[in-house]
Amino acid sequence: MEWYWILLLLFFGLIALMFTGLPIAFSFMTLSAVAMYLFMGEMGIKQLIMGMYDQLCNFNFTPIPFFMIMGEVFYQSGLISRTLDSLSKLVKKVPGRLSVITLLGGGVFAALSGSAIANTAMFGSLMLPEMTKRGYSKELTTGSIMASGTLAMVIPPSTLAVLLASIAHVSVGSVLIGAILPGVLIVFLYIAYVIISCILKPSLAPTYEIEDVSFKEKVEAIIKDLLPLGFIFLLVMGLIFLGWATPTESAALGALGAYILTIAYRKFSLKLVLSTLVSSLKVTGMLLLIIAGSVGFSQILAFSGASREAVSAVLELSSSPYVILSLMLLIAIVLGFFMEQTAIMMISLPMFMPIVHASGLHPIWFCVLFLICLQIGQLTPPVGVSLFTMKGVAPPEVTMSHIMRGAIPYVLLNILALVIIIAFPIFVTLLI
After folding, report:
1. What is the pLDDT of residues 140-165, one digit of tens each?
2. 4-8, 127-131, 178-182, 204-208: which is most confident
3. Distance of alpha carbon 163 from alpha carbon 159, whole angstroms
4. Are 304 and 3 in contact (CB under 8 A)?
5. CB–CB of 255/66 below 8 Å?
6. pLDDT interval class at 3 (50, 70, 90)
7. Is the pLDDT of residue 225 over 90?
8. What HEC string does the chain produce?
9. Which of 63, 162, 220, 268 is placed for a possible disulfide with 247 were both Cys, Cβ 3.0 to 4.6 Å?
10. Which one, of 379, 390, 421, lies nearest residue 145 by Cα?
């Protein structure tokens, strides 16, 4: 059988299983088991089981539960509400003020949590009522909340970045560090868009009286609420950057630091510990099941020669690495319309990474660009998870049409960020 038929059968077979309602993890497992048996018989099943075991024993996955614990601690303890209050004191008469605060808060919380869904739900419940009361446009309101949530996918520490680096077989620490400046760039583009839009069309965000805050209160807000959170971020990323700790060790220290902060703010309880551990365990278990199920996909590509032939075919299309890069990123964006981010990584990275290396592209640079493509998929219908999370926390008068229209500008801004980072790779390579 020709290699392209193998790829098509695997891809559409996986899509068909997912449309039956079978969870992603078990869709991968079913397809992998059937394909491995057809290719290699009983030996294929044994090879699949051994591959699953080896993959799950990969030490690169160990930061994931600690990053999940960090996010859950800040989310469930309510510390992020203090952060938003402090940002409100610092951000004064800016066009689209509440949207700007939401995006800044999203950037701060993204540096402490790896969950885009949790971020969107949290900012939706906290900021949506206030923005609605102030007469903000439904599109501006929902768009900024969803965008603030998706920042957690790029700004480290990101569980998706850890997962991506592990699947791509590149340094987890390098991907996390390489994503810092692109994350800052995306936040800047988001905020600039909100301010410019509200200047051009003031009706999007009507102005209102803001209570004066003294300089002393601003300093207190920074010292009491923002600096401790900044210390947690520096504790995690600074140790990785300096090479003093592995990503796993830094993540563990970050989780410990989050619990210590809850003690300092008198939010600590045994119920909080149990709840955060259970929540992080559920998400980590789900991710590991997906990883285990996807192992066979990579093995089939290798055994059938489809991966090797696909690399050769792509390299024959063009001698320009940028054309090849653009094609791979476009595929990732298109897949984001129909598939969940983890599934996209499992399907495409085993094929893309050999092409990246053969084309002479910087693997960390590519991984960060790929991460932004996955972020775009979070905001695009019909399966953009942030869209449905937003609808779940929004009142009935906020329709899916409002939510989708609100997401479009941020999709375009992410594409602009891709173009800038492709033109200036130093955004990724400067710190690594």
Report:
1. 999 999 998 888 889 888 888 888 99
2. 178-182
3. 6
4. yes
5. yes
6. low
7. no
8. CCHHHHHHHHHHHHHHHHHCCCCHHHHHHHHHHHHHHHHHCHHHHHHHHHHHHHHHCCHHHCHHHHHHHHHHHHHHHCHHHHHHHHHHHHCCCCCCHHHHHHHHHHHHHHCCCCCHHHHHHHHHHHHHHHHHHCCCCHHHHHHHHHHHHHHHHCCCCCHHHHHHHHHHCCCHHHHHHHCHHHHHHHHHHHHHHHHHHHHHCHHHCCCCCCCCCCHHHHHHHHHHHHHHHHHHHHHHHHHHHHCCCCHHHHHHHHHHHHHHHHHHCCCCCHHHHHHHHHHHHHHHHHHHHHHHHHHHHHHHHHHHCHHHHHHHHHHHHCCCHHHHHHHHHHHHHHHCCCCCHHHHHHHHHHHHHHHHHHHCCCHHHHHHHHHHHHHHHCCCCCCCHHHHHHHHHCCCCCCHHHHHHHHHHHHHHHHHHHHHHHHCCHHHHCCC
9. 63
10. 390
Tokens found for residue 86: 């402090």
Cα→Cα distances 56→59, 245, 287, Å: 8, 22, 10
Q: Which residues of 42-68 are buried (b: 16+ CB within 10 A; e: fewer)?
A: eebbebbeebbeebeeeebbbbbbbbb
**Within a 10 A sphere around the Cβ of 289, how many other Cβ atoms?**
18
Instruction: Find which of 22-36, 70-84, 108-122, 253-267 is predicted with most confidence, using mean pLDDT.
Output: 253-267
Q: How many angstroms from the chain centroid is the CA of residue 167?
A: 15
pLDDT at 238 over 90: no
Query: What's this model's pTM, rounded to 2 decimal places?
Result: 0.83
Residue keyed to tokens 């969107």 = 120
Q: Which token pair is 295?
A: 């192992």
Distance CA 366, CA 421 (A): 10
Neighbour-count burial for 166-182, b at 16+ CB within 10 Å, e otherwise: bbbebbbbbbbbbbbbb
The reply to whether omega before 157 is within 30° of 0 (cis) is: yes
Q: State the CB neighbour count (10 A cutoff) for residue 146.
A: 28
Q: Which two tokens stand for residue 203?
A: 């009706």
Burial environment of residue 268 by CB neighbours within 10 A (0 to 12, 13 to 18, 19 or more): middle
Q: Which residues contact 18 (CB under 8 A, 6 or more apart)?
A: 24, 27, 339, 343
